Amino acid sequence: MRITLSNGRYGAKVNQIYPGIELDMVGDFVAEPKDGWEGYIKARSGISIKGGGETCKVYCNQRDITAGAGMPEGVSMLQALKKPSKETEGVTDFTQVKVADSAVAHETDEQIIARLRGRFDVLRDMTRAVKEGTVRAMIVTGPPGVGKSHGVEEVLSRDDLFNQLGERKPRYEVVKGAMSAVGLYAKLYEYSERGNVIVFDDCDSVLLDDLSLNILKAALDSSKKRMISWNTDSRVLRSEGVPDRFEFKAGAIFITNIKFENVRSKKLQDHLAALESRCHYIDLQMDTEREKVLRIKQITSDGMLDSYDFEGNEKEEIIDYIIAERAKMRELSLRTVLKLADLRKSFPNNWRSMAEVTVMKRN
DSSP assignment, residue 193? Predict the structure, then answer.
């Protein structure tokens, strides 16, 4: 049966289909929820992912499937499933949707810089409020490499200075990367006392697991009493002396690259809406390349590269290079600025050539 598929993915989350692609569907739709999709179809074409004539699973929602007239000429299954289009890139997976600079054409550079500076001032003030306990929890979203984590850690580290000087255990911890539900529960218990702050940075995998997500909802709740429970037997929790129920009195901050309103999975949308309603949600609003470049200019002018002791106009050369080559950069971020500064310091005569290899996309 020939069908048209408006949305779906194959294999890893980045392998997203072209919208409106027409495929040969083999068998019926199979209801098997996974990563926000309702189920999958088996599809086949002349050129298959695994070899001629084989079928592969394409995860999608039933509403995305309509009757199709024929496969577009020159488009193979391999092309359809391996290359995400600009229209759908970053919509169902956890990346930022690209926004054209025209979206902020009504603002001057000075207005954008002032707006961004104001947003990060709010982030610092809110972090301090979480540390003090007047705000219980917040979610911070923005593109990677713009200083979200640094702003939060800077405040917490400065406020925790006496514990560091006294060689006592810090009253906060930043948790990065993947985490299981039982690991999440145990970590929340460890920092559950009033005055502590637990920060989840780049832990987006938590959002894909229902059990982890429900635990996170409880921790981020703004109610006066937050009880978190583990309702199944766990040898790991028993061995570590973690109870099956406790009150979470600490502050919690969840830092993510996900812009909640851009997620199209209905199931995940509902969960994210529940999280957003439970606590403060700060969107740093930096979606265009122009905003990211101006953020870079702002931070460098505030002294980000002072430790490199650049002479003359060396710092300006780096910024000018980023502006001129921004479309080629793998990532337009503060991390890229530091990489270029390292190259400028280590290879003063050919740092641009080195940059083409290390920080730019392949043609």
Answer: S
CATH code for the structural domain at 101-283: 3.40.50.300
**In the chain, what are the domain boundaries?**
2-82, 101-283, 303-358
> What is the pTM for the complete model shown?
0.69
10-residue averages of pLDDT along the chain (363 residues)? 73 55 75 81 55 67 67 40 38 56 90 94 95 93 89 87 68 88 92 94 84 91 88 83 93 90 75 88 90 93 92 92 92 93 95 94 75
Q: How many CB atoms sit inside 10 A of residue 111's CB? A: 12
Q: Which two tokens stand for residue 182?
A: 């039982």
- Residues with Cβ within 8 Å of residue 33, at least 6 apart in sequence: 39, 267
Which residue pairs from 69-74 have beta carbons closer than 8 angstroms and sit at least 24 positions apart in sequence? Answer: 69/2, 69/4, 69/22, 70/2, 70/22, 71/2, 71/22, 71/23, 71/24, 71/45, 72/21, 72/22
